[in-house]
Amino acid sequence: MSDDLQEVKFVGPATATVLVDADISAQDLMDRRVSHAQLICAGVNPGVAARIRREHSLSWSKQGGEDLDRRAEQVRGLKDGERAWVAASSGSWEAASVDQAASTDGRGDEIDEETRWQSQSWPSHGNDEEVTTEEIAWRERSSPTPVTDVDGVGEREAAHLGEAGITSVRRLATANPGHVADSLDYDLETIREWRDAARSAER
């Protein structure tokens, strides 16, 4: 069964093991009997689940219907902080999906650190000149460093990393190399080198 699953595009050995444990077969994917949400709940890496969903036109959720599919399309491409805000405003399952992504890609509680930092409002007290100065300083501090600042990561690689939710040096520094390599079908050692370089840049 695991061998059959590995014949499915974007399903590597690690993902196949997770799917076998969840009693999800290759035929289930081909016949679209599972949803993106079910893959996430089974423990599939969010980046891999997204690729499988797109490749096989899986629904986002078996419970949400077409309305949820349309809403998911509307928020596709939004950055993590924006996506979490949209999910929270509607009370949809997407909020749980964001939390699940944090726990399955090796970053744990640290995944939202950057989002929380950026969401902090700058001080609004004092005169206009002071507020403007503080706002500029806040924006400079909170602006994420692009992954292209890491040696070996060009625009093409940065676009691929973005598919796995890695859009800054800080995110890359806390990423799980194994999950990222599996998700993007990259060499594990390459991802480790980028992760280590990102950690050095963060110091």
UniProtKB/TrEMBL annotation:
Pfam families assigned: DUF7409
Segments forming domain DUF7409: 8-54
Region annotation (Disordered) ranges: 99-153
UniProt GO molecular function: nucleotide binding
UniProt-listed InterPro entries: DNA_repair_Rad51/TF_NusA_a-hlx (IPR010995), DUF7409 (IPR055832)
Protein name in UniProt: DUF7409 domain-containing protein
Organism name: Halanaeroarchaeum sulfurireducens
